[in-house]
């Protein structure tokens, strides 16, 4: 394994862990599509941050996109709760609107913004090793993206381990959580803020689609394998890491996009769990149903 | 103004293609979108849109050329397959629908990207333009596309017209549709197929991400203006067609502007306008209604308080200062002020130097409210066995709602009572 491959797989694995940890909470809250919506809706935030800072300055982009992500969830909630638009329609209306806004902004400021929509949709993880972080003394610290994603991962791990109980309760039993004095709204927006942050940190290297794939795929796979949230978090992180490593070699073999290949591997992982899971798989369900069918 | 005329005259063939294409596409996807939104499957369109890509790539890899019909066929097949898989996952495991949609969407799209990049890197020169399916380019529409769009639009409209009643039934009452023996599975499949068809065709002009807006946004907006399906479909199609033309106009005046995103932008603004301003269902209309009801409650409460104050003195013409009213019943000062003014205007209360007093008309109105309050208290104690010291709160809210018909029924039921559970007199109908 050469050094470039190492960096690419490491980046993929970091994104995979971040996304799949958050994804577990998203799919348990039946909000998988909100993750999809956020990953598209951050586009205008990135463009605006780009315009204000004039460069791909990481922190302004992170802030701009995180704001837009939270604004997107706020709009979805607003249309759904206040204006009585059905939940899925309000997701659909909101993120397409923001995405369209992003593309229009890109075309208006075409000369000033070095962005296009394909980099937002599917990024290019293969370029990660090119953007190195060199200290002033010339010391090579490895790719910049790895450091950013590592930072986000640390923040996420802290967030989830410190507030595991709050996240757990508000996801499974919002009524009980509210009864013991937890603000469901606060935790909802904190979770959404974390989703936006992860999306932005990941988008440049892997693109919106891989973010969605990693947020939904590994957690869904883990959901079919276990009933315990802690195990589910662990399993989905492992599934994500395997997918990013296997995806890299698949892409190498087919000479195609790494992000696309990782999504494809995620699909295969899910398919395996869907059919062979010992507790919730197709085969075991059929076996459980058999006696009833015969009797 | 000149540009508008130039645009409307459509003398330029390219303008003609783009405009008519956008209108056809927008209107036909809006029609199908109405059904997907009503069946609460709005985001399914998003999945289909993403799932089209691997089909396009596979079709190209197998045939090695960019025959539009073959590509359409390929995209249609994978788009359709994605829906079947979503249904299979939700039916045969404990995965919920939103997760299944997200999973299928991203995995199909990922495979599509993998294939597309593999094709691009393979050095086949004919591949350029395949990514039209990714981002769409309405500006690149040509006469050939127009014929395809037109054919699909006619097909969609015809099927919806012919099977209007059946589609309506499966959208609103699946169980009933099954009971009367409609081939529900078949109809669902047909509706799904029509959706896929609309997406596959539309994607070439607005791109993968924005395609779902073409289905969802006009339908969600139109839902706010009407309760009738036929009208809703018509409004959605009209809105979309208008935005399609307007989007084409924007990119005509400023060629750097992309048509698709502008269509979606305009549609979204129209939708947000509808969410807020639509009569009856809109946010504003509902807010105003709420405020009107609240004000009416305040007014009735003021009248009631004046009446109760008078009742203790057995003299209803007496004036009371605001202070005295507030002592008897705590009311928010600001709202009370507005309420008193409104009551004055309605001639239910008159103002003099000592304060506010009920007029004759005001006393009658106050009597009505107090009467309802006490009738309800009596009803709760007699029929629902609620303790008499627990009934006041409930009566406080229901007194503003009871209609004259209900009042009559209550009276009959309680056998024309004269006193309430607290032994106070129930004022008789004036």
What can be said about this structure in brief?
The complex is a heterodimer of chains A (295) and B (430). Chain A is mainly α. Chain A has helices spanning 3-28, 32-53, 58-82, 87-108, 117-122, 144-162, 164-172, 174-179, 184-225, 229-254, 258-276, 282-294; strands at residues 132-134, 140-143.
Strand order of the largest sheet of chain A: 1-2
In round numbers, the mean pLDDT of chain B is 84
Question: Within the CATH hierarchy, at the fold level, what is the topology of the largest domain in chain B?
Answer: ABC transporter involved in vitamin B12 uptake, BtuC
CATH topology category name of chain A: ABC transporter involved in vitamin B12 uptake, BtuC
Bin the helical content of chain B: over 70%
User: What's the total helix number of chain A?
Assistant: 12
Subcellular location (chain B): Cell membrane
Organism (chain B): Rufibacter glacialis
GO molecular function (chain B): DNA-binding transcription factor activity; protein dimerization activity; transition metal ion binding
Family (chain B): Belongs to the ABC-3 integral membrane protein family.
Search tags:
heterodimer, A: 295 residues, mainly alpha, ABC transporter involved in vitamin B12 uptake, BtuC, 2 strands, B: 430 residues, two-stranded antiparallel ribbon, 2% strand
What does this structure look like?
The complex is a heterodimer of chains A (295) and B (430). By secondary structure, chain A is mostly helical. Chain A has one domain: Orthogonal Bundle (ABC transporter involved in vitamin B12 uptake, BtuC), CATH 1.10.3470. Chain A has helices at residues 3-28, 32-53, 58-82, 87-108, 117-122, 144-162, 164-172, 174-179, 184-225, 229-254, 258-276, 282-294, and strands at 132-134, 140-143. In chain A, helix 2 (32-53) packs across helix 3 (58-82). Chain A starts with a helix and ends with a helix. By secondary structure, chain B is mostly helical. Chain B has three domains: 11-281, ABC transporter involved in vitamin B12 uptake, BtuC, CATH 1.10.3470; 298-358; 368-413, Diphtheria Toxin Repressor, domain 2, CATH 1.10.60. Chain B is built from 19 helices and two strands. Chain B has helices at residues 2-9, 13-38, 44-63, 68-92, 97-121, 132-135, 143-162, 164-172, 174-179, 184-206, 208-222, 229-253, 259-277, 283-313, 322-328, 333-345, 360-383, 392-398, 404-413, and strands at 349-352, 355-358. In chain B, helix 2 runs antiparallel to helix 10 (184-206), helix 4 packs antiparallel against helix 5 and helix 11 (208-222) packs parallel to helix 13. The longest helix of chain B is centred in the last third of the chain and has 31 residues, at 283-313. Chain B is elongated and about 100 Å long. Chain B starts with a helix and ends in a 17-residue tail after the last helix. Chains A and B meet through helix 2, helix 4, helix 5, helix 9 and helix 10 of A and helix 3, helix 5, helix 11 and helix 13 of B. Chain B: One of its GO terms (cellular component) is ATP-binding cassette (ABC) transporter complex.
């Amino acid at each position: 394994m050469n050094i470039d491959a190492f960096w690419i797989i490491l980046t993929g694995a970091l994104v995979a862990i971040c996304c799949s940890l958050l994804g577990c909470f998203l799919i348990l809250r039946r909000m998988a599509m909100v993750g999809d919506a956020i990953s598209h809706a951050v586009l205008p935030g990135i463009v605006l941050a780009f315009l204000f800072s004039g460069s791909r300055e990481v922190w302004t982009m992170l802030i701009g996109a995180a704001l837009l992500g939270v604004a997107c969830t706020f709009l979805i909630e607003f249309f759904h709760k206040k204006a009585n638009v059905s939940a899925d329609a309000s997701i659909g209306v909101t993120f397409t609107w923001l995405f369209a806004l992003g593309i229009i902004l890109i075309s208006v400021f075409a000369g000033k913004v070095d962005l296009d929509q394909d980099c937002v949709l599917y990024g290019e993880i293969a370029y990660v090793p090119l953007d190195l972080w060199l200290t002033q003394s010339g010391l090579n610290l490895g790719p910049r993206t790895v450091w950013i994603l590592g930072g986000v991962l640390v923040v996420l791990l802290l967030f989830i381990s410190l507030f595991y109980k709050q996240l757990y309760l508000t996801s499974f039993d919002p009524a009980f959580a509210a009864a013991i004095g937890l603000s469901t709204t606060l935790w909802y927006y904190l979770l959404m803020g974390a989703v936006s942050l992860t999306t932005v940190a990941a988008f440049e290297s892997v693109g919106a689609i891989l973010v969605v794939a990693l947020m939904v795929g590994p957690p869904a796979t883990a959901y079919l394998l276990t009933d315990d949230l802690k195990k589910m978090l662990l399993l989905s992180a492992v599934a994500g890491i395997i997918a990013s490593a296997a995806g890299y070699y698949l892409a190498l073999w087919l000479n195609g996009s790494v992000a696309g290949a990782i999504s494809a591997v995620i699909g295969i992982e899910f398919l395996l769990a869907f059919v062979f899971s010992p507790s919730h798989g197709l085969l075991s369900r059929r076996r459980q149903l058999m006696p009833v069918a015969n009797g | 103004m000149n540009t508008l005329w130039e645009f409307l005259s459509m003398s330029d063939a390219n303008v003609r293609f783009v405009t008519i294409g956008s209108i056809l596409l927008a209107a036909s996807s809006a029609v199908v979108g109405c059904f997907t939104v009503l069946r609460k499957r709005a985001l399914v369109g998003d999945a289909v849109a993403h799932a089209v890509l691997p089909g396009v790539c596979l079709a190209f890899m197998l045939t090695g050329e960019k025959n539009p019909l073959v590509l359409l066929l390929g995209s249609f097949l994978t788009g359709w397959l994605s829906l079947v898989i979503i249904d299979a996952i939700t039916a045969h495991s404990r995965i919920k629908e939103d997760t299944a949609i997200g999973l299928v969407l991203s995995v199909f799209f990922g495979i599509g990207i993998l294939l597309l990049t593999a094709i691009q890197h393979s050095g086949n020169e004919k591949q350029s333009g395949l990514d039209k399916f990714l981002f769409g380019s309405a500006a690149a529409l040509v006469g050939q596309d127009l014929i395809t769009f037109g054919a699909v639009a006619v097909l969609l409209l015809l099927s919806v017209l012919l099977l209007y009643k059946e589609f309506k039934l499966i959208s609103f009452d699946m169980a009933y549709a099954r009971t009367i023996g409609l081939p529900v599975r078949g109809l669902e499949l047909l509706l799904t197929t029509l959706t896929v068809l609309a997406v596959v065709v539309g994607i070439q002009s607005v791109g993968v991400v924005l395609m779902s807006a073409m289905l969802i946004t006009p339908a969600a907006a139109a839902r706010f203006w009407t309760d009738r399906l036929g009208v809703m479909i018509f409004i959605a199609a009209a809105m979309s067609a208008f935005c399609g033309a307007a989007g084409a106009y924007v990119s005509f005046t400023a060629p750097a502007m992309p048509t698709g995103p502008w269509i979606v932008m305009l549609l979204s603004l129209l939708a947000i306008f509808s969410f807020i301003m639509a009569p009856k269902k809109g946010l504003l209309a509902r807010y105003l209604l709420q405020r009107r009801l609240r004000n009416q409650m305040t007014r009735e409460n003021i009248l009631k308080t004046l009446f109760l104050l008078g009742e203790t003195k057995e003299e209803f013409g007496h004036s009371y200062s605001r202070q005295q009213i507030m002592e008897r019943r705590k009311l928010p000062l600001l709202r009370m002020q507005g309420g008193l003014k409104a009551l004055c205007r309605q001639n239910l209360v008159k103002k003099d130097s000592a304060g506010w007093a009920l007029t004759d008309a005001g006393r009658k109105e106050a009597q009505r409210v107090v009467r309802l309050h006490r009738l309800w208290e009596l009803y709760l104690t007699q029929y629902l066995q609620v303790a008499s010291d627990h009934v006041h709160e409930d009566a406080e809210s229901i007194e503003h709602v009871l209609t004259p018909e209900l009042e009559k029924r209550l009276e009959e039921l309680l056998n024309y009572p004269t006193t309430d559970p607290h032994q106070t007199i129930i004022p008789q109908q004036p």
